[in-house]
């Protein structure tokens, strides 16, 4: 079971495995249509039915699907297979195994050949030009933005220097505060068990203050609406006009291409450090995710062949072959791709994952976010103080949450 097409599967995994094991044949069933017009609960119920009907042996899952199917007893435990075959897991990035075990309550129900994370990239030449100390591993958002504000903000928009850039579109204060700064620190916008909004705290206020200060400082580059801010041709970072940005490993490939193809570019030295991090836990991160976890269906009739496939694509031979390719993910097997275009990848592997924690602001209700947007605009216009705005977000956000909960309960009763 694969989320994309059969040809995509073969390109990523199948063709290489078939060359190694020509007597094992695949049938690929795509689960791509399952998410169409469905909520989360309906999606997993549909997936259950899909698995019952199609009977796939190998399941290639995302984080949430892995956790859900494991909790429903639909995945085969892999620890006995690993022990039986003396399969080497020592060469796998420990963070990947830690995440899988945490979701599996201490046991492995899958392996992931790759993972996603991001780092802080910086323009060494700009730092040297303005006599600013180079970034270091494990910087918080506050530290990163403090450094960004050391760069000059004068000059016209098309030629000036910026301290920091991120994304392909303008970012609101609420987005910066809730989906970037607060999420890195694991701040929850609400307590779902108690159904209480929890944003009127000193730490949340600090996140909004940082976002307001960054916006006001003029150090943040933001492409105008409808522009190609993320393309190599228009990216001020690739053109050497932005000191720092955050991105995954794909930027390394883009950087090399930009130095060759973007017209009028001034080549510069690129640096990488780990982060951003929670200042309370500078050696850890909440920003490691597993996009494709390979598992075996509990009721598989071909579990041995399925295990051979999973062993191979999570093994050394596959990692060695894939080390010549670059995409948006990193190999879980360490030691096979140590650098890209002359730059060490160590910073991608330095931080340990923060476990046993639900995601932060990604679960923020749209009604609460709309209130944040409105209130922060009033603060920007000097029509409200930040403390007044935070109080309003708390009280009106709680009222909106109570209303939504009440309506949901009524809908349940009517459905019965």
From TrEMBL:
- Positions of the region Disordered? 393-416
State the organism named in the record.
Answer: Paenibacillus segetis
Task: State the protein's name.
Answer: Multiple sugar transport system substrate-binding protein
Q: Which UniProt keywords apply?
A: Cell membrane, Lipoprotein, Membrane, Palmitate, Signal
Q: Which PANTHER family match?
A: ARABINOSE-BINDING PROTEIN-RELATED, POLYGALACTURONAN_RHAMNOGALACTURONAN-BINDING PROTEIN YTCQ
Classify the source by domain of life. Bacteria
**Comp. bias intervals (Basic and acidic residues):** 401-416
Q: Which Gene3D superfamilies match?
A: Periplasmic binding protein-like II
Signal sequence region? none
> What Pfam families does this protein's entry cite?
SBP_bac_1
């Amino acid at each position: 079971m694969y989320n994309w097409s059969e040809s995509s599967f073969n390109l990523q995994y199948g063709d290489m495995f078939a060359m190694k094991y020509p007597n094992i044949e695949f049938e690929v069933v795509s689960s791509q249509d399952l998410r169409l017009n469905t909520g989360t609960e309906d999606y997993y119920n549909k997936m259950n039915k899909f698995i019952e009907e199609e009977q796939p042996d190998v399941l290639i899952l995302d984080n949430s699907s892995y956790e859900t199917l494991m909790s429903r007893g639909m995945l085969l435990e892999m620890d006995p297979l690993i022990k039986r075959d003396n399969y080497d897991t020592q060469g796998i990035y420990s963070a990947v195994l830690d995440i899988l075990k945490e979701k599996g309550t201490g046991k492995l129900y899958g392996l992931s050949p790759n993972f996603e994370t991001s780092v802080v990239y910086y323009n060494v030449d700009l730092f040297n030009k303005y006599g600013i100390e180079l970034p270091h591993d494990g910087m918080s958002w506050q530290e990163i933005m403090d450094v960004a504000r050391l760069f000059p903000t004068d000059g016209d928009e098309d030629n000036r220097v910026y301290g920091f850039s991120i994304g392909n579109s303008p970012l609101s204060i609420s987005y910066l505060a809730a989906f970037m700064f607060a999420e890195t620190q694991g701040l929850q916008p609400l307590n779902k068990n108690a159904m209480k909004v929890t944003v009127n705290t000193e730490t949340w206020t600090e996140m909004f203050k940082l976002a307001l200060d960054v916006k006001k400082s003029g150090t943040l580059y933001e492409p105008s609406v409808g522009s190609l801010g993320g393309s190599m041709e228009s990216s001020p970072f690739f053109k050497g006009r932005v000191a720092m940005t955050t991105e995954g490993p794909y930027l390394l490939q883009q950087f090399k291409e930009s130095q060759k193809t973007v017209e009028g570019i001034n080549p510069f030295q690129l640096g990488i450090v780990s982060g951003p991090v929670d200042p309370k836990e500078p050696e850890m991160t909440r920003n490691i995710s597993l996009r494709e976890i390979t598992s075996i269906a509990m009721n598989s009739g071909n579990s041995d062949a399925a295990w051979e496939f999973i062993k191979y694509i999570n093994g050394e031979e596959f990692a060695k072959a894939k080390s010549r390719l670059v995409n948006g993910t990193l190999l879980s097997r360490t030691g096979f791709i140590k650098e890209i275009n002359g730059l060490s990848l160590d910073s991608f592997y330095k931080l340990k994952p923060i476990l046993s924690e639900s995601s932060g602001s990604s679960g923020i209700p749209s009604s609460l976010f709309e209130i944040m947007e409105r209130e922060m605009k009033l603060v920007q216009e000097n029509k409200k103080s930040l403390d007044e705005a935070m109080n309003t977000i708390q009280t009106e956000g709680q009222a909106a949450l109570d209303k939504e909960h009440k309506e949901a309960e009524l809908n349940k009763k009517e459905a019965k």
